[in-house]
Amino acid sequence: MELRTILGTDLVPLEDMLAERELRAGTQRRLLAAHGGPLLCLSLNMAGPVKDFPLLRLGYRAGRLLAEAALTRAGGSCRFLEERLSPAGPCAFYLARGLSPLAAKDALCAVEDGGPLGRLLDLDLLLEDGRKLSRRETGRPPRSCLLCGETAAVCGRSRRHSVEQLQQEAVRLLMEYFSARWAERVSTRALRAMLYEVSVTPKPGLVDRRNSGAHRDMDFFTFLDSAAALTPWFRRLCLLGARSPELEDGALFSAARSLGIQAEEAMRAATGGVNTHQGLIFSLGLLCTAAGQLYARGLPGGEDGPPPAEALCRRAAALAACAPAPAGQAAGSLPGGARGEALRAFASARRWVLPVLRQAESPEEGGRRALLALIAHVEDANILRRGGRAALEAAARRAQQVLDAPSGEFQAELAAFDRELIRDGLSPGGCADLLAVGYFLFLT
Q1: 3-state secondary structure 290-333
Q2: How confident is the model over 202-234, as pLDDT tens digits?
Q3: Among the four residues 248, 272, 353, 443, which has the most C-beta atoms within 10 Å?
Q4: Is residue 253 part of a domain?
């Protein structure tokens, strides 16, 4: 998205900026007279005549939380007094108590030095007599320029960098901060989805808390190790999408595929070579990448929330369409397995899992019934490969019988189905992956 689109066209004349500066100074004097000090004045640095736009306003609100948390962690308190919201930029005023002024200033300097958003924050601390504490008094160096290693004040006086360069860097830092925060949320949901799926018990033919299903090379803890190893890679995939809001689908898929290969290597390293989540690396990898891209596309306009499940799945499907077709696939036909489900925008998860989870009394009870619905209605490639078409159709009929069992007999029928699939060496791993996808969409 172009810089002009993000910033908008609400230019603040110089005289209005000077007037706002005087108004803030008057507010500081009034609050100091009424409450004493130290007084924290929070604002954001933004070069040029555009001082307020949706993305910056998001940064302002997040910056307030960072400053409040920093003073609280240091052992002090942070009492909000008032704020000014104007075209010349937002500003908030707090009363900082419970810490020596130098300790409070040092905690605020740590915020300014601590990350992308902090570099844009101005966290001034005024004593009761109106004197502003300097960074030098805490032993910290002067603030550095956003674009080079020089002192910010020196660069500003010499006009070393253009206004547009500084604006671009400020927007980049804001995008980086919110993208990283979003990627953390998305990867945490991916982790929860994997943990919820493996924890549902009993799961016919699959690894759960009770047994290893029809598998001999993995158990519950193998899945925990795998999920822990994969979570950072789902974060990287989300960040990839967030940093590529306008990237062409084929190029984005290629970059995501490269990360997916590395994620698979991390999985096998954590499990001793066992394939626990290969299908989910593809499915959740696409969804995490799509979640990052959609979030970044909405963020400049002020959208700070998850995209709807259907939109997320459609974006993932568009990326999946860039994957090379498997050898032997007929032209124009949709493949089965993880790629086929992705190309269908995860229709099976949205139809057979999401409604059940939304109506269930608990995530586990919903997971049991959603898994049975998947087995009853979805062609599971794992069962098909292990047992053939007859086994696939028999498993579908049996799953529906369990679903239709009276409530007092449901648990016994489910346990019996588990024993039958273990006996026959059948594992509905594709349906398990779709259950995890459903949990991911449900948690999003």
Answers
A1: HHHHHHHHHHHHCCCCCCCHHHHHHHHHHHHCCCCCCCCCCCCC
A2: 999 999 999 999 999 999 999 999 999 999 999
A3: 353
A4: yes
